[in-house]
Amino acid sequence: MGSAPLIVASNRGPLSIVAVDDGDDEVRRGGGGLVSGMQAALSAAPDAVWICAALNDRERATARRCTSGRLSEVPAVADALAGDFDVRLLPIDALTFRQAYNGIANSTLWFVLHMLYEPARTPVFDQTWRRQWAGYVRYNRAFAEAIVAEAAHGATVMVQDYHLLLAPRMLRELRPDVRIGHFTHTPWVPSEYFRMLPGDVVHDLLDGLLAAHLVGFHTARWARLFADCCADLLGERPGPGLSVFPLSTDADEMQQRGAERDVNRALRGLRDTVGERRVIGRVDRTELSKNVLRGLLAYRELLRTRPEWHDRVVHVVYNYPSREDLPEYREYTAAVERLARDIDDEFGTDDWTPLVLEIADDYPASLAALRSSDVVFVNSVRDGMNLVVLEGIVLSEHDPAVVLSRDAGAADTLGDDALLVNPFDVSQTAAALHEALAMPADERIARAQRLRKKAVALPPVPWFQAQLDALADVSR
Amino acid sequence: MGSAPLIVASNRGPLSIVAVDDGDDEVRRGGGGLVSGMQAALSAAPDAVWICAALNDRERATARRCTSGRLSEVPAVADALAGDFDVRLLPIDALTFRQAYNGIANSTLWFVLHMLYEPARTPVFDQTWRRQWAGYVRYNRAFAEAIVAEAAHGATVMVQDYHLLLAPRMLRELRPDVRIGHFTHTPWVPSEYFRMLPGDVVHDLLDGLLAAHLVGFHTARWARLFADCCADLLGERPGPGLSVFPLSTDADEMQQRGAERDVNRALRGLRDTVGERRVIGRVDRTELSKNVLRGLLAYRELLRTRPEWHDRVVHVVYNYPSREDLPEYREYTAAVERLARDIDDEFGTDDWTPLVLEIADDYPASLAALRSSDVVFVNSVRDGMNLVVLEGIVLSEHDPAVVLSRDAGAADTLGDDALLVNPFDVSQTAAALHEALAMPADERIARAQRLRKKAVALPPVPWFQAQLDALADVSR
Lengths: 476, 476
Fold this sequence. Notes:
2 copies of one chain form a homodimer. Chain A is α/β, with parallel strands linked by helices. Chain A has helices at 33-44, 57-65, 75-81, 94-113, 127-150, 167-174, 191-194, 199-210, 220-234, 251-258, 261-274, 292-305, 327-347, 363-371, 387-395, 410-414, 426-438, 441-455, 460-474; strands spanning 4-9, 15-19, 25-29, 49-53, 86-90, 151-160, 179-183, 214-217, 242-244, 278-285, 313-320, 355-359, 375-378, 401-405, 419-421. Chain A has 19 helices and 15 strands. In chain A, strand 11, helix 13 and strand 12 form a beta-alpha-beta unit. The first copy, chain A, starts with a strand and ends with a helix. The mean pLDDT of chain A is 95. Chains A and B meet through helix 5, helix 7, helix 12, helix 13 and helix 17 of A and helix 5, helix 7, helix 12, helix 13 and helix 17 of B.
């Protein structure tokens, strides 16, 4: 039995360790709203621990050197943590990590939960897949055992996301005294889709999650679909612990970061291209579910059907590379680049660049894109929440109109103040882009005021605190 | 107002017209259980009419020559019909037909209703698709208007399948006096999937079907999913006309056809290859939803994991070509052929051909495959009913074991007397093939007896009559 009263468990932790020139470790503390929300709660609880996976050989080596298992043994890490809380980095072997993370979490569970399969060909659950599944089980067990080692009697454990769907059941059996919360950051799907997974896997995943005292989702829609899966496939109804916590963004944090010098510099560069034209801005990972391809098709249909926008609008698309190790992602990005060239060939002039597409890891440039947006555009085929649209609303300097997929969790947060679209309906999306560009100023400003309120309704710190409060309630 | 008391409306009719050498029309009367079931009811009702689409230029030309619109004007057709009933062939123009049949029915509705899309890339509902949709509306209107012209006051109209989902509403508005039945031969899907279609299209399709007094499906599962779609997407619950009629096969008709000389000849040819070995038999169209690829993967996994079956089993796969005009179908068939070669390369010997794959339109050979099957194998990813598995049970001379996808409607008919599998779970399917091959004779015989009863529970003639009776009940 350990001493931690509060534990967060997630695949990726709040810091990363990279090798620097002299061979030493450099520790980088992660940013982003979600991490800072959890850090606030961890810092407030003495002796709290964040448990996460070592993501590469460097991190595994560092983790193995810590005899207590805790990273604060490493001076550079201790400096970075500044005593706020400790981090336990799990040195899961490289094969198990690859099986669990690439094979199951990102290639199976992500695809199931975003309905991304092409059922004539994928998924295929065969012997090779079974070996990956065994890796996912071992990965979850490693987390459960580390939590057991760290948790004080009656501790609170907050398990994150689809990487760790089995851990709650494992943990509950090993340590009935701890209070377990789990939060799923992805969408959920109908039982007719979820049951594509092998029967025993369906059982273990649903049963794994149901073992948590608190099961959190971003929206009532995902929670309801999860409850339907439990009823249809497990014959059980989730108890009162099934809850909805719609994460939003922290306006102060975003605006502060968005006003820094590197963003200002990127914004000046963008203005050189855009001039006085309107900007339809989007920022995504290069991720199949983000639907950039249909977004570009909609923009092309806008330019084809509404020539009045020629030379008066620029579509600015920032994509930061993600999952480039998966061939279908590389092929998708190549298709995006081809379509972007086609659009430029069809409409571009000496004076007007109709489309700016950047595929690069350039955070300041992406914030500049959002600051300059007249229309914030998100059309994911399915998305747990999508924080970018909320960040865009907060950062834009132009009282932006919002064109948003009805199948992003954020649609539930923003409602009809955004222009909601069916992400598969390119013509409807093109019409919504026109409506957004042509919206009378007074209507746009009134909507933007309401959108800004909704975009910050439950920022990371109160979002995480609300889960801790709810967990204390349901496990009382 | 017309004179017909009973009308069947379907895309494909009970006869086809082809050009023969001397330039004359030759009329071929169609076969198959479904057609014969409807023909029986039509023949019993004086002045009944079957309304269908002209499928090619030849048929369009013939249809245009009939001043009454009825094919009995053509002597060769009148001979073929022998006064049983009349046929009205709609000379829908070639573009409209292509838009409705290829563009919407087979490339959109078929894909939606079998959950075949790859959502990162398909579907794309853009301007081009909208033109196809307009063709589907015109095609349905042509049927509705022809029905109006033919139907006597208070006539009964039986509309068939996903080609004609809009016609019931159109017809009901034009002719409130007629009693409308509709039968969907495909599966249905969860509302979360169906709503990928554009919003107005979702509305028109569901509302179109709800206008029928009787809405029939093969299984309670498809009917329930349709009802959920209506509730979730239309805010309406279907009335008492939503009904289930699980079509089965006609044992006498099948056995008679299966005993003809051409089948006997094919069977002798097959026995030369197979010898005394066990046969795992399957017969399908080259259709994405039939899942031949994963079937071959399962057979390969069987041979890899259970070497005791080497040289003791042959997998016989008959595929008749279908939808070869769609590139994804051609690519899929090519992948099937590649995998078949791989299996032959991995396991074949001078004496043993582990796999017989025939991609050809050879009905006698396919019946021979079913007659010789020790295991009847169907693993569709989704299938309205699947009559082949029922025909295989009736035709096999070996008290066959059945390995069947739980996602084919026939699974509801056959239940646990078949070995039901998750069609995506190749390992489970391989294990079921082993279980089927290794099943003790007494168990296999007992199951086969029960399966034969279930396979003929509601053959085409009573199946269609049951719908007519139910329609009379609900519209009273």
